[in-house]
Each structure stands twice: as structure tokens, then as C-alpha cells.
Hints:
The protein is of the alpha/beta class.
Amino acid sequence: MNDAIGAVAAEGYADCYFKVRDGLRLHYRDYPGSADKPPLLCLPGLTRNARDFADLARRYSPRFRVIALDFRGRAASEYDPIPARYNPLTYAGDVIELLDQLGIGHAVFVGTSLGGLVTMVLAATAPQRIVAAIINDVGPDVDPAGISRILSYVGKDVRFKSWDEAGSTIAANYGGKFERYSHAD
Length: 185
């Protein structure tokens, strides 16, 4: 079941929802575009959402239809009470259901981080659905240390006693990425 909650807004997209096999209602943004070309299907990273693709969508629609998904449990999509279903295989199934419900046979995939992993799963399990793929912030070889770091904080309610403690933690985890900032920033 697929339902748009209104016409295309002034921002150039419609907020839409669809139901997946386990009953969850998932959200996507649909930016209208040419029906003559395969649409761009945008898949976000682990803690990200469809809004991340707004600039890309504005640039490429109306030449391409752009669809940006919120994975289950993210942004406007419903939360899945079964933690085991938060995995790339389930997300890939959700993507196939979205494509099927929209009557889309194949698309150009744009995947960031987790979205790139889901795109790789789809390349292995449903290659006929992918016209082309653009993946960023992930590759076919994922560093086990990176996975361990991600698993150390995903799903945990982290609270800091002060801004200084938060800054120190960020500096320790991402030191080289924020060199120009000091604790005062």
C-alpha cells in the first residue's frame, strides 16, 4: 500500500508512505521528474534520513524522478520493535517493496554509508533492479575496527556530564577530522 500525504509541496517534493510486509509504514520523499529515465533512488546512512538528499534532488529533478527513503526506525518511518530486523538484508527487502509498489523495475541507486551497503546487497540479490550505483562513505572492504567503533555506540543512550566531556569524547573518536576546532568552539 502506497499513500502520498499531499501534492508536491512548494519545496518540490511530496512526503509519501508505503507499508512493508511486516506492517510497518515507511516514509520517502518523492521529487517529480522525467518518466523517460530511470529514477534516482537515494538511500541514507545509519543515523541519517531522506532530507540528506534534498540538494541532490533539487539539482536533478525534474530531469530525473528522485526518491529518497527513510529506513525503518529513522525520521518519519515507523520504529520496528524487533531489533534483529535492523539489518541490510531487511532494508534491501524494504527497497524492493518500495520499487514494486511504485511500479519501478529498476533505478539508479545513490547510497551513503549504510545506504551503500544496502545497494551492494541489492547488487548481489537483485542486480536487475540496478541500472547504475553511486556509493559513498563505504566500500566493498569494511574495516573491522570501523564496524567495532560503530557497534560501540549504536543503540546506546549516551549522556555527557558537560559540554567539555562531550567535546573530549568527539575529539578522541574523530580527532583528525575536527583539528581546527578547540574545546572553546
